[in-house]
Amino acid sequence: MTLRIKFWGVRGSIACASMDHMKYGGNTSCIEVQAGDHRFVMDAGTGIRNFGKVIFEEDIRKIYLLLTHTHWDHINGFPFFTPAYDPRRHISIMAGHLKGQGGVEKVLSTQMHNPMFPVPLEAMQAVLEYTDFEAGENLPLYDDLSVQTAPLNHPNGATGYRINYDGKSVVYVTDTEHIPGKPDQNILKLIEGADLVIYDSTYTEEEFPEKIGWGHSTWNEGMKLCKAANVKQLAIFHHDPEHLDDFMDDIEAQAQKEWANCFVCREGMDITI
Ligand SMILES: [Zn+2]
Ligand SMILES: [Zn+2]
């Protein structure tokens, strides 16, 4: 009975595939969470395409897709998520930022509208279920685990997720902007005592002042929040496409010097907590 996390896409903003992005990976946000027999995938960035193959290999029938929000880098992989075209699969899609704004089905459908994409959402043969909730609600999905959520500070809104299973917990907090000197109380509450927090670390402290209003944060802020909330481990996530492998190596060295209990996410990383 363990909680397993696999990173299928760790980039923010846009997928990038140059040789200088290969070490950390170029696909955008997508994280698989396995809690016993339950399977979740958080965000449908371009990384979800490769995860789709696992669904067939392991013949997974039911999966929850938890969306932080619907900016491109978090949904662009969805039209290429092949299990969605297979009538034997059941995919339950949830989002916490679109209630009263048309809902998540409409947004995913719009992305696939002619002439932006040749195949409409209606061509997807899987049982697709859509749920729009209000960020901050708890999601009662299974009896033996709990899912908590919190609203994040991001243009058009975003939702943070915490999955608690068998005494372990993982929290996914992207995309979010911090206010310097004012720790985000919603996030502190969500991450309290967690085993692993995956945090939006798009910018460095040097870059941050130029990017106020863009909706992102820094690893330094993530570390402060984790320490204040007794979190065991921080995962530095949502890498800026301009941050090449050498740059990411430096970030990891600096961050680990400050606090050994952190790492920079790399595509393909598979961890059990
Ligand atoms: Zn993003
Ligand atoms: Zn975003």
Description:
Helices cover 19% and strands 29% of the residues. It has 273 residues and is of the alpha/beta class. The strands form 2 sheets. The protein has a 7-stranded mixed β-sheet with strand order 6-5-4-3-2-1-14. The chain is globular and about 50 Å long. The N and C termini lie close together (10 Å). The mean pLDDT is 97. Bound molecules: zinc ion (2 copies). One zinc ion is lined by residues 69, 71, 154, 175, 215.
- Arithmetic mean pLDDT: 97
Strand content: 25-35%
Radius of gyration: 17 Å
Computed structural class: alpha/beta
Largest sheet: 7 strands, mixed
What proportion of the residues is helical, as a percent range?
A: 10-25%
Strand order of the largest sheet: 6-5-4-3-2-1-14
Give the distance, in angstroms, between the N- and C-terminal Cα atoms: 10 Å
| Bound ligand species | zinc ion
Any idea what the shape is?
globular
Number of contiguous helices: 6
How many β-strands, per DSSP?
14
Which sequence of SSEs, written as H and E, runs from N to C? EEEHEHEHEEEEEHEHEHEE
